[in-house]
Amino acid sequence: MEAVVLTIITASTPLLLAAIGELVVERSGVLNLGVEGMMVVGAVCAFAAAYSTGSPAVGILAGVTGGVFMAFLFAVMTQTFISNQVATGLALTLLGLGVSGLIGESFVGLPGVKLAQLYIPFLTDLPIVGKIIFGQDVLVYSSFILIFAVTYVLFKTRTGLIIRAVGGNHNSAHALGYNVVAVRYGTILFGGACAGLAGAYLSLAYTPQWVENMTAGRGWIALALVVFASWLPRRLLVGAYLFGMVWIMGLYVQALGLGIPSQLLSSLPYLVTIVALVIISGNRTLTKINSPAMIGQPFVPDR
Amino acid sequence: MKLILEKRPERSKKMALLSPILAIGLTVLFGAIIFAARGLNPLTALYVFFIEPVTTIWSIEELIVKAAPLILIGVGLAVSFEAKVWNIGAEGQLIMGALAGSMIPIFFTGWQSPLTLVAMLVLGMIGGALFGAIPAFLKTRFNANEILTSLMLVYVAGYLGDWLVRGPWRDPNGYNFPKSVSFEGWQLLPTIGEGRVHIGALLAVIAALALAFMMSKTLKGFEIKIMGNAPRAGMFAGFSPKKTVWFAMLLSGALAGLAGISEVAGPSGQLQPVISPGYGFTAIIVAFLGRLNPIGVIFAGVLLAISYLGGESAQMTLGISARIGQVFQGMLLFFILACDTLILYRVKLLSSTKPATGG
Amino acid sequence: MTDFNRGDAKQLLEVRNITKMYGDLAANKDVSLAISQGEIHALLGENGAGKSTLVKVIYGSLQPTSGEVFWQGEKLTIANPAAARQLGIGMVFQHFSLFDALTVAENIALALPGKLDLPKLSEKIARVSVEYGLPLVPTALVADLSVGERQRIEIVRCLLQEPKLLIMDEPTAVLTPQEADQLFETLHRLSNEGCAVLYISHRLDEIQRLCHNATILRHGKVVATCDPQEETAASLARLMVGADVHEIKTRSAPQTGKAILSVKDLAMKPDGPFSVALKNINLNVRGGEIVAIAGVAGNGQGELFDVLSGEKLATNNDDILISGIGVGRKNINVRRQMSAAFVPEERLGHGAVPEFSLSDNVVLTRFATSGRIISSGMINAKASQNILLNIVEEFDVRKSGPDPEARSLSGGNLQKFVVGRELDRSPSLLIVNQPTWGVDAGAAALIRQALIDLAADGSGVLVISQDLDEIFEIADQIAVISRGQLSKTVPAGDLTLEEIGLMMAGSHENNAHQNNNDANHASEATP
Predict the structure, then answer these.
(1) Which residues of B touch C69 (CB under 8 A)?
(2) Is B218 a domain residue?
(3) Which residues fall within 8 angstroms of residue A261, CB to CB, at 6 or more apart?
(4) B 227-266 → A contacts, CB under 8 A
(5) Are C477 and C485 in contact (CB under 8 A)?
(6) Contact B291, B301 (CB under 8 A)
(7) Which of A37, B348, B354, C404 has the fewest C-beta atoms under 10 angstroms from its C-beta?
(8) B142 CB near a chain A CB, below 8 Å?
């Protein structure tokens, strides 16, 4: 039981990290479909840095930097050059997969550096809950802190109010004197940092090694999760853990050897994503009230 | 220094032509930088990447073989994207087309007649179209985002193909290799001339020409352009947004399916666990690079095919990962999107914003 | 009215020789203007005269190309709206700068500096709004509020900053006459407290009632500064428009024929959380008459237009009859083939595709009715170009080339094209939503004349409009829509501005089921 919960946590954390970043991006009215690309670059940067220095902390930093760099490209393209956000996001993913392959080719098959897990004598040794609550790595705790921090910032602070205002009506925000483009640069870079963290988690904690395309569509699932959570951070928590459960369930059922084709079980998370999208999207009231009205729309200030 | 975009009163025709050229130029420039950073002579590397693939008959044939599926899928996506229906799952539709078409040689191994091939191609198109119909249905019925659903289905199709080839459809006499039976005779696409070029290339050009005609001359093309450009005005013209989604998904799905069956009945000659080296994704770049114009897609398809071959030859000659091809593809798409801004906007550099002091 | 001791009031704001260029086009040219404390100053001008540009310069959202700004005698630069607010300049926008998905308090907080403290702010909002007679619920979502309530948010937002100068951009365009009266009271009160008001409008009667001074703009230049009380409406109008105002040739009593459009008990569910439900709509438009539907924006006009045009289908086929034949479940093109024609409110993106050429925009609404445009699925470009030539000539559409993109046309010229495209085929029924919204006086006069001429030829015309002046100018019959309910149709001559105002505020709601054509019931509708 404990083992199951622990693996669910590892499967859910990267989804949660990537999704919370994208949620903030979308709240400001931007659709960045390049999560997968930012994530995979984050993963390879984190692995390479941690392998070269032996320090997972440097690895995490490198992962974040990689994600932010990719996000910066997206921000320049969509905010300064007003390119189509859908197409640019796709380009970011394709570029990210290519670049990560190029950087990572010399690291394939090398043993990685695993992120240390918390150990508090006595507390971590508690039966059942000990390892689950007190025995995680820093990124798992970060993912929870991020969810609550984002909830607080979005709904209790002026910064969050401005982000929501920009996503709700960029013309009004501009008329009131807010710098729409600057706000969006900020959220996009934050999204990149989160995606980079998610990638770092994959190559430092989930499976401490570098495998090409190791994100395996998790960036896309994170995008779906944001819709599933109807743009509310706390629902993201529920969604990410539900998906983590599905992911892990497949592995366990496979281990039972019931003769169910492994490919069917492997495709379960993707099928579940589709089902979840259908259920949420079908409810127009739910999606429409929270969904940022400006999402994907370009903004050009008049001067 | 501040960069300012000023909307042009009308789209610039000059920039529409110049922008792809500018984008290619920038890609080559940045490519040279990457090669140089890897300690390679950029000129040699660029020669190996871009020129070598078109210097021998053999490689030109290979180029056409690679360009054909890219064009076939790319023209379908161009039409779909023009309607702002974002079918990102062409790779999955390609796989389903390949699987559907392969049922003929796998279940009717002995059937040999010209009709065999026709049936395979038709089944391939139906397979791709049906798989494209799933996101269309989910979009029109449940308002589910087609980008995400079509992409998720790529993974599903990939696993399904993998299962079939390793399981029920495996060649019983294939020494346990994950392959189907080898296709023979009328189960294979006829080649053009002596080499490897098969009639898939012809199909691609025909599809591009037909869709070019549709987009520029017919009411259907008008409908697609308007639904993508100003859907509210499209409804005012009496067109249905839902029908547009269906049309775009079925058309692009069918063409991706055709590309899929053409791959297995052409260069591969049998089903394997991996059917395409990501043609369905690369075709997205092809569609954009071709300005979403079917004729433009033909040129873009050839160019992107070079990036595949260039990647391979760079790997062989220069010892650099074939992934370099993918990096070039991503960069190219980036630059083309940035350069497209120039069609609608004028870029101005201001030394600094002038405050209202005047006087 | 007791004037705040304006005699010795100090000068508050002065702008000198403001010029704002857009490329080669001067939106403002050498504009100068001065306002002192407590003064209500009118900025008068046609659409496109440069009023909004000037105001944006004063509010810091635009930087002038040249010119000087003085605030309380001191020369300075207003770099952005936050700087303007800091000085004490507040602005109520014409197209409100509000956020539908946020609450009233959040909307107001966005314009105030300092730490975010919503509970405290809500208290303050409640207090100020009661004090000035502008009731607001701080926790309400803006999406759920009426246009009048939304304007209150904008005003309260300004008042909380204790402004010295309040800029109001066409504030009454979206109000009922009664709401406008209430607004004037608030403005007088502010003026008496020493707050200056820069009041932008093209409604002459309001300016005469309200303002102490007026600056009149035409083509970006100041053409006159005057005391509006000393002018007549006609003289103001001449200053504003330049040449003498177009007189519209009205018809003798309309020759009404049989019903061309009949709507019976039409009801529509809202299309989403931000849309209006239509309830029990009953309406008749006969050949030869112009029926106008008045109402404040956002009361279901768009929804009604969509279901009448066929962009949304009605529940039952017989809810809507054209020339006696049910079309409620029929597509827009079927209705067009029955000689109906439609002009929506939004020109760009609904009535026309901005990025398409004009001839392609001809195809947009004409392909189903003009046989020459389409043959066996193919578009005949020649045919649509010929139609374009007719429209351009007949309606004086001015454009930059032979067949430019729609978005390159000015608002007035594009509207002439969009209306002309439908009138060119002499429809027997025309339904038009806000026919002259945001167009210059010349184009507006031409369009109104064309509508009158169409009715004179025996066609039925249904005009949905927010502009009461326009309605009284052209309509034979008037109905009022509010919150998705339509009042009875009343002959135009039997209605006063006050009655129509009460109806716009909803006095007829739930009464709409009575006999449709009985004019004598009009007085009953007013409580």
Answers:
(1) 356
(2) yes
(3) B163, B167
(4) none
(5) no
(6) no
(7) B348
(8) yes
pTM of the predicted structure, to 2 decimals: 0.87
Subunits in contact with chain A (3 or more CB pairs closer than 8 Å): B, C
User: What pLDDT, in 10s, does the model give residues C332-357?
Assistant: 999 999 999 999 999 989 999 998 99
Q: What is the domain class of A2-290 according to CATH?
A: mainly alpha
What residues of chain C lie within 8 A of the CB of B219, using their CB? 367, 374, 377-379
How many domains, in total, are found in chain B? 1
Query: What's the ipTM?
Result: 0.87
Helix (H) or strand (E) holding C225: strand C221-226
Among C482, C408, C418, C480, residue whose Cα is nearest residue C446: C418
Chain B residues near residue C344 by CB distance under 8 angstroms: 236
The answer to whether the Cβ–Cβ distance between B148 and A267 falls below 8 Å is no
Among candidates C238, C203, C242, C248, which has minimal Cα distance to C447? C248
pLDDT tens digits for range B245-302: 999 999 999 999 999 999 999 988 899 999 998 899 999 989 988 989 999 999 999 9
Q: Is residue B3 part of a domain?
A: no
Print the SS3 string covering C419-485. HHHHHCCCCCEEEEECCCCCCCHHHHHHHHHHHHHHHHCCCEEEEECCCHHHHHHHCCEEEEEECCE
Q: Does B171 touch chain A (CB under 8 A)?
A: no
**C-beta of residue B322 within 8 angstroms of C-beta of residue B311:** yes
What distance in Å separates residue B329's CA from the closest CA in chain A? 7
In chain C the domains, ranked by start, together with CATH numbers, are: 6-241 (3.40.50.300), 259-339+427-525 (3.40.50.300)
pLDDT value, residue C255: 66
* Chain A interface includes B121 (CB < 8 A): no
The Cα-based distances of A249 to A150, A224, A255 in angstroms read 29, 20, 10
CATH code: domain of residue B233: 1.10.3470.10
Q: Is residue B45 in a domain?
A: no
Q: pLDDT grade, residue A286 (50/70/90)?
A: low
In a domain, B46, yes or no: no
**How much is the average pLDDT of B70-87?**
97
User: What residues of A are in contact with residue C98 (Cβ under 8 Å)?
Assistant: 169, 172
- In one letter, which amino acid is A223? L
